[in-house]
From TrEMBL:
Keywords: ATP-binding, Nucleotide-binding, Transport. This is ABC-type nitrate/sulfonate/bicarbonate transport system, ATPase component. Gene3D superfamilies: P-loop containing nucleotide triphosphate hydrolases (3.40.50.300). One of its GO terms (molecular function) is ATP binding.
Length: 268
């Protein structure tokens, strides 16, 4: 597997002098092509700051981020971000189709017909047939977040960054969106880096879970999720492997050290 994202010695400080605040500290990790990696960390530890630095929205105070071997310096063309707050990221005056097509409108290499077909395809991926002509405010919260995901996927990004994407929907919708993400990711071989504060979500979704410390964020563990590719909201969450991994992530988040791999799998 080729490396898609390389983060090396990344740190970011807000402000200067006495009021300076170190938000992330010396983050080093990679994400491989085709991987769904989750980053889990406590509230306020610096997760969003880290994503903003990776996406080029914020210039980090130090360290390096490379996407497909190219140093990130500004927002890369082949990167898409899905935020938690879908109501603020969709344009209410544009239809669903126009929202999904929007980022493609600036691409000279994509014709109008291609734009239309990519939008339709992406809306099918997220299971939203028949809503292309509606406006975002005519849809439920879960459907709006599906539109945001479709908009990101229509760009066919090399890397999809997701910042707490399911934190604003109800529990049932959240389960549906988690399954949708895993299905779309595996069908397209997409590379995804998803940030969450939800331990269960990180283990259920991830091929890998990176655990962050309290502020300033630093990586305390990088765990491979030893669960089958095909997951199910009931049986997977009840399995001993899931329960044991969740307990390990919880322990690490509360300041415990890293255990041996055999212990993480519950000794099974
Ligand atoms: N623009 C900013 N200027 C100054 N401080 C900031 C700024 N953005 C974030 N911070 C501070 O940096 C720290 C990390 O914030 P950040 O939003 O990255 O954390 P987070 O883990 O994403 O939080 P949450 O889980 O609550 O979304 C916080 O203490 C926050 O107050």
């Amino acid at each position: 597997m080729a490396t898609m994202l390389e983060v090396s010695g990344l740190y970011h400080r807000y402000g200067g002098g006495e009021g300076a605040h170190l938000a992330v500290n010396d983050l080093t990790f990679t994400v491989e092509t085709g991987e769904l990696a989750c980053i889990v960390g406590p509230s306020g530890c610096g997760k969003s700051t880290m994503l903003r630095c990776i996406s080029g929205l914020v210039k980090p105070s130090g360290g390096e981020v490379s996407l497909q071997g190219n140093r990130v310096d500004g927002v890369p063309e082949d990167l898409a971000v899905v935020f938690q707050d879908y109501s603020r990221s969709l344009f209410p005056w544009l239809t669903v189709r126009q929202n999904v097509e929007f980022p493609l409108r600036w691409r000279r290499d994509i014709s109008k017909a291609e734009r239309r077909s990519r939008a339709e395809e992406a809306l099918e991926w997220v299971n939203l047939p028949g809503v292309a002509g509606k406006y975002p405010w005519q849809l439920s919260g879960g459907m709006q977040q599906r539109v945001s995901i479709a908009r990101a996927l229509a760009r066919r990004p090399a890397l999809l960054l997701m910042d707490e994407p399911f934190a604003s929907v109800d529990a049932q919708t959240r389960f549906e969106l988690e399954d949708l993400l895993r299905n779309v990711q595996s069908a397209n071989g997409s590379t995804v880096l998803l940030v969450t504060h939800d331990i269960d979500e990180s283990v259920y979704l991830g091929d890998r879970v990176l655990v962050l410390s309290k502020s300033p964020a630093t990586i305390v563990a990088d765990l491979t999720v030893d669960l089958p590719k095909e997951r199910d909201q009931i049986t997977t969450r009840e399995s001993p492997e899931f329960v044991s991994m969740r307990a390990e992530v919880a322990r690490l988040l509360h300041g415990g050290g890293v255990k041996e791999k055999a212990d993480v799998a519950g000794g099974s």
